[in-house]
Amino acid sequence: MQSTEAARALHAFSARWHEQAAVVVRRAAERGEVPAGTDAVAAARAGVFREPAPAGVTEPGAPPAR
């Protein structure tokens, strides 16, 4: 059985967490460690859920894209 309330709560939690994690990516862009204009939320999701990274962003553990 699925709970609509639980699903909404999980979605809200995930959205907040991704936005908070995106701050790290934005700071990396400011330092030139990822390309300017990188979708910070998508990059954060890629790091957590192993989704494809945005264009120009290397895989975790790889040297920064320059």
Helix content: 55-70%
Number of DSSP helices? 2
* Arithmetic mean pLDDT: 78
Task: Using the alpha-carbon principal axes, give the shape.
Answer: elongated
| N to C succession of SSEs | HH
Helix/strand/pairing category: mainly alpha
Q: State the end-to-end distance.
A: 48 Å
Radius of gyration (CA) equals 14 Å
How many runs of DSSP E, i.e. beta strands? 0
Strand percent estimate: under 5%
Low-confidence stretches: none
Largest sheet: none
Summed up:
This protein has 66 residues and is mainly alpha-helical. It is built from 2 helices and no strands.
What does this structure look like?
The structure is a single chain. The chain is elongated. By secondary structure, it is mainly α. It contains two helices and no strands. The chain starts with a helix and ends in a 17-residue tail after the last helix.
Show the helix and strand layout.
Elements lengths: L3 H27 L9 H10 L17
Keywords:
66 residues; elongated
